[in-house]
Structure formats: C-alpha cells, structure tokens
Design brief:
By secondary structure, the protein is α+β, with helices and mostly antiparallel strands. Helix content is about 15%, strand content about 35%. The chain has nine helices and 22 strands. The longest helix is centred in the N-terminal third of the chain and has 19 residues. It is elongated, with a radius of gyration of 36 Å.
C-alpha cells in the first residue's frame, strides 16, 4: 500500500509539472519600433535566461508563475508576469540617464565603480583661460597635482608632479596620452631647456576632458613610463544632432610686471658712489652722464605684453557620421621685450558608423609653434633682469660715438678710469644690445594622428 501511494504522488507531480511548462517567445523593440538585439531576458530570481537575437527575438521555457526581467544598457528594466501567454512583445522606453564615466587607459568605467585614484577635469573649465598650454591651467584643479612654472619665458615647460617627486635620479614628469597615443612633452635638457614645450602644441579649446591616473593602476597599462602618473587627454568630437554647430571664441589680455626693484636714479647713484670713494680715501670719480641722462634699465627690458587667442570650430553629424573641425591661433608677447610665442593649429576628428558591427574613425592635428626665447641664467648672476638691475643709471642706452650705436661699456663714462670698481663694471653689457642681437628662435611643426577600426563580433563568439 505504501509503494502504491508513492508511485501515485510521483505521477501526479509529473503531470502537474508537464502541464505548467511551456515555451514563450516574443520580440523586443525601442520607442521607434526598431529591434533591440542583445537584450537580457532573465527569469526573476534565477540566472536562467537568454538574449535577443539580431532581430530582437527571444524564446524561453517558462511556467505560468514566471516573471521575466528585460534589461538593456541605457533603458529602464521591465518585469512582466508570463501568466497564460505564449507570446510577449516588449517595447523598451524611457532611456536611463547615463552616469558619469572616467576614461582609464584603453576604456571607460563608471565613476562610482572606480577603485583607482583618478582625478577628472572638464576641459571647459580650462578652455577659457588665456594660457599657451593646458598644463599651466591645471594648477589647483586636481588634488595631488602640483604645477610649478620655473621660468617667465613664454613656451617654457612647467614642472608637473603627481603626488610629489617619485624618483631622485630618473625623470619625474608624468606620461601624457592624447586620444590613446603617448606624446613627447618636450621637457629637454641643455642650453635651451624649457623653451620647447610639446604640450603647447595642443589647443586647450580642443580638449574635452582630462583624467589623471595617480596610483599603481597606471603602470599596469603603460608600464614603467607611468611611474610618475599619467595624464589622459580626450579631444572633442561631433554630436549626432544633425545640425552643424559653429563656435568662435576670442580672448585678449595684457601681462606686465606686478612689481619692480626700487633702484637708485642717476643723481642718487652719483652721490652714493662718491660717498663710497670718499670713505675709502679715493678722490670722487662718479659724475653725471651726458645731458644729465637718467636711465631706468628696467624700462629698457620690460613692456606691457599682450595675449590674443582666436578659436573657430565646426561640429555636427548624423546617425552614421560625426565630425569636429577646428582652427586656432594664439599670439603672445611677454612682459620682457623680444620674448614672444605664436601657435597655429588645426584639428579634424571624424567618426563613422558603417553598420551595427563596424565603426571607424580618425583624429588628426597639425600645429606650428614659433618661440623667441631669452638669455636665461640658472645661477641668477646674469640674464636680462639681473643685468638690468646692475647697469648704471647715469649711462645712456645708445651712444652716438659708438660704431654700433649701443653703449657697450657703460662703466667708462660712469665712474672714470683707474679706480678699483672699474674691473667689476667693465664686464657689464648693454642689455638693449643683448635683446636686439641675441636671438633664440625655435620653430616646431608637429603632426599628431591616429585612427581606429572597431568590429563588434556576434554574441557568443
């Protein structure tokens, strides 16, 4: 009797189970009626499910109490109870707002899920700053990033340090990657150090965003070059709105010295010099120059410089093509005469979607940078500013009797001959002559380009 009861229960269970199981199928589309391939269709509370094919169709074994969960990137998930239906067509709408993403190495990741130490800076926060290179505008914009300008010469390379100095004998500058391509920063050693800044070739108006990788995760992608951190630069690209957009911006500014040395004028210099002679037991020998000249050598080297930036861009696209074209011009005059920097740049970013599985694109930039440098001394004992503070104010800049027109040895008429100060003053050179004759011109023409071909394989391959 017990055996018979057990067999009956098994038959009843099998009958009920066979009666409830059935196949449900359907199609998933978006608000416009377009098929959605790759939509996840999962039985709620389990890992059992399928994905829709290229035409948005799915087929799944369920029972009448099953709840199906439909989910797809960019759309709100839906839950549908099967009940007694065998066909379920679903329209997915209400696209969800995408969360902020951060570019890391060769991909992107949701900022909330990012574990590594990364700082993100929106390019629009720096684009309006009248600087030659974007690295000069990064100061104070990202935690743990220190930017120091070591020279007032236009075009000099600022020192960028991420979380301090990580090496004593090796390099300390971060790796710069533009649209996935590492670039040469131009931080060189030698006589013209600091006057070839490769980062100045990039137009700040073309930059969409910056990501700064600070920890060991950067070395896992770029190797030992990333030991001092990585600055990832992503340039702008066109939208798919279908309407071309033209943007033009113009900035103008001036730069000048905030403060100058309070030096003696000609009369005060002659008076104090003769007092020193008298105190040393020497006959006073300093006297006023011709026509009672009073030269402020700081006025000779300094000026009110200007900063002019022009930027023009055209962007737009369609469902298949997006484009971004730009042209920029930057012209700067330094606060010291004969120091100038100009840059002309053009950029073209084009992306093309051939079909659902093939995409391609190209990013090109051509720039030309011309820099007029200056005599810079690392010791501080020479150079333009140092000479301007040491030259005698009772000496004219130009002298008619001199063959070149410049007063090359201003000490001869300032203190006379045969005194103990002559050997010191003899080496003083007319700084106007140096600015006019010592030309340090650098011209840098640069081409940056990269392209990509993206093929999406069918699901399951």
């Amino acid at each position: 009797m017990k055996k018979f009861f057990f067999s009956l229960m098994v038959c009843l269970f099998a009958f009920q189970n066979g009666y409830a199981q059935r196949t449900v199928s359907g199609k998933v589309t978006d608000d416009t009626g377009e098929s959605l391939p790759g939509v996840n269709v999962v039985i709620k509370g389990t890992t059992t499910g399928v994905t829709t094919d290229l035409d948005g169709n799915f087929r799944l074994e369920v029972d009448e109490n099953t709840i199906l969960v439909f989910s797809f990137v960019g759309f709100e998930s839906q839950e549908i109870t099967v009940g007694d239906r065998t066909t379920i067509d679903v329209t997915m709408g209400g696209a969800t707002e995408l969360q902020e993403v951060v570019v890391v190495g060769y991909g992107e990741v949701d900022k909330r899920k990012l574990i590594s130490s990364v700082s993100s800076v929106d390019g629009s926060t720096l684009a309006d700053m009248p600087v030659v290179s974007f690295d000069q505008a990064l100061q104070g914009k990202a935690a743990g990033v220190q930017v120091t300008t070591t020279s007032g010469v236009l075009g000099s390379t600022p020192k960028v340090r991420i979380r301090g100095v990580n090496s004593i004998t090796s390099g300390t500058s971060p790796l710069y990657v533009v649209d996935g391509v590492p670039i040469q920063t131009g931080e060189l050693s030698g006589f013209l150090a600091g006057q070839l800044n490769g980062l100045a070739d990039l137009n700040p108006s073309d930059i969409e965003s910056y990501e700064i990788l600070k920890d060991g995760a950067a070395t896992a992608i770029y190797g030992s070059r990333a030991s001092n951190g990585v600055i990832l630069i992503t340039t702008k690209k066109g939208s798919k709105s279908g309407q071309p957009q033209v943007d033009y911006s113009f900035t103008y500014g001036v730069n000048q010295t905030a403060n100058r040395f309070d030096l003696l004028n000609a009369e005060e210099f002659v008076l104090i010099s003769n007092e020193k002679f008298a105190s040393a037991g020497i006959t006073p020998q300093a006297f006023a120059g011709p026509d009672n000249v009073d030269t402020d050598w700081q006025d000779v080297i300094y000026r009110t410089g200007s900063v002019i930036n022009h930027n023009l861009s055209l962007s737009g696209g369609s469902e298949r093509v997006s484009y971004y074209f730009s042209a920029g011009m930057s012209d700067q005059e330094g606060a010291i005469k004969n120091n100038s920097l100009s840059r002309y740049s053009t950029r073209a970013n084009i992306d093309y979607t051939a079909n659902d599985w093939l995409k391609t694109g190209v990013k090109l930039q051509v720039s030309r940078q011309q820099s007029n440098g200056l005599n810079v001394s690392s010791s501080g004992l020479s150079g333009n500013v140092a000479n301007a503070t040491r030259l005698f104010p009772n000496v004219p800049v130009f002298e008619a009797e001199h063959p070149t027109g410049y007063n090359i040895t201003p000490d001869n008429n300032a203190l006379g001959r045969g005194n103990n100060l002559q050997n010191i003053a003899f080496n003083l050179t007319n700084i106007q002559y140096v600015l006019d004759k010592n030309i340090q011109e650098t011209i840098n023409t640069r081409f940056l380009g990269n392209g990509y071909l993206q093929i999406d394989l069918p699901y399951g391959i």
